[in-house]
Design a protein that fits this description.
By secondary structure, the protein is an alpha/beta fold. The chain is built from 18 helices and 23 strands.
Length: about 550
Amino acid sequence: MDPIYVTGHRNPDTDSIVSAMAYAQLRNALGDREYVAARLGRVSDETQLVLNRFGFEPPVLIHNLRTQVSDLNFDTPPVLNKAVTVDHAWQLLHQDENTVALPVVEDDGTLFGMLSTNTIAAQDMRSVLHPEIDDIPVFNLVSALEGSIVLDAGEPTNRVSGRVTIALPANGEEALPLNRNTLLICGSQPDVILAALRADVPCIVVCQAGIPEEARQIDCSSLVISTPHEPYRAARMIFQSIPISRVCRTTNLCPARLTDYVDDVREMAQDNKHRAFPVIDEDGKVVGTLSRIHLLKPRRKRVVLVDHNEVAQSVPGLEQAEILEIIDHHRLADVQTGNPIYMRNEPVGSTATIVAGMFMERGLMPTMAMAGLLCCAIVSDTLMFKSPTCTPRDVQTAERMASIAHVSAEELGRMIFSASTADDKSAADVAFQDYKEFMISGHTLGVGQVVTLDSERVLRREAEFLDVMRQRMEEKSMDMMLFMITDMLQEGSHLLFLGASDVIAQAFNVRPDGNHAFLPGILSRKKQIIPALSVFWG
């Protein structure tokens, strides 16, 4: 069962993480067991504190949704040990007309080579020009001939070598090259058989006949095999007793790992003319084969987006995934889908408010621990209900979740915002723990935000913040970089910025002091900062 990943945005905040976890839990409880909560980045200290408070582990981390070999419906034909006979491999290749090649493996299951009908046919043609076998296991020979050993005069013979020679009835034994390099095939020809035994040929294949009784009295080391097939068929079957390790292709195999991306494998397939490529797992063991037809319509990963609907904020490789649902409370952005999907976008202060409402709509009460998480997410995203994005529904939902979890929303709020600006964190961790990038009328900007109850303590590190902001701005070639230090007690935000000072002055009607300005009443990035800049840039 392939998972359906439920994921929030990059640099996930508490609302993003909790909404993904809650929605996955809701769908699992309703019987949809394939839904899995995921995250796209590290868990912030605030979110980790909340998870620890209610006994949850962070969601699984995913780096991208690009289609991988593991997402393909590749073939799983028989995997052959390199000691198997060509005869057995040929039969398997013709059991399924869609099988064009079979993987050949070492004893431990790792890749040795690839075997196709073409390579077997080429070997068969070579045997016509050079009818010799070398060091073939006796078991292989007997199996291919569907015969039995009727005489093994010397020490037990384990391997056979020699030039394959058919004794025609019209020829006497004097016309045959009987020596230590002869593998003789004959029929009911007692004189030829006795002559061959006296010449001590390594192997005699008797077709549709027995051996004379006096043959057992001759002092020799010859091996005699009886087969029910006629001589010319027996000759061809001898060459099919060769181990496939001597026939299969062992170079330029171009294996595809389960974790390889389909885009890369497609390029490899275009550069090679092979009809099939082996698929191996992380241990190098063969798990199947794929051909070009498998690359045409790969099975895409499935995803549900929560707390965002913008490509720049979503998981890399989203264009290769199948988006099933979007649950969000932001403006509509640029995510596009190939098919109609379920989308729920509501003007509330937190995605967790929407997900909590979905529990109630389905007549399912969240667990005490999950209710506590949902309450924390709403409190965090609405800045303890002081954000301009907060609605009465957010307040009511948070209070209901707090009641189920037997906690205080105000107490959780103080715990959350006291953890956001720990002094032991690096400047980059603080500035980018809740960070998003935007494109507005051709201008690129990044906006980070931290919410605190003591902005003075945070501002002591202003120079550090500006340094890491400048570095990020240069790395990403951005036009502007903002960092909001939102003070819950002052009910406003200290704005550290890099870029055009006049833009900040005019967009927010303030007088900046260097790279700093205080914006009274500005608490929301989504509803106040971005709209103001959008209006300014037109």
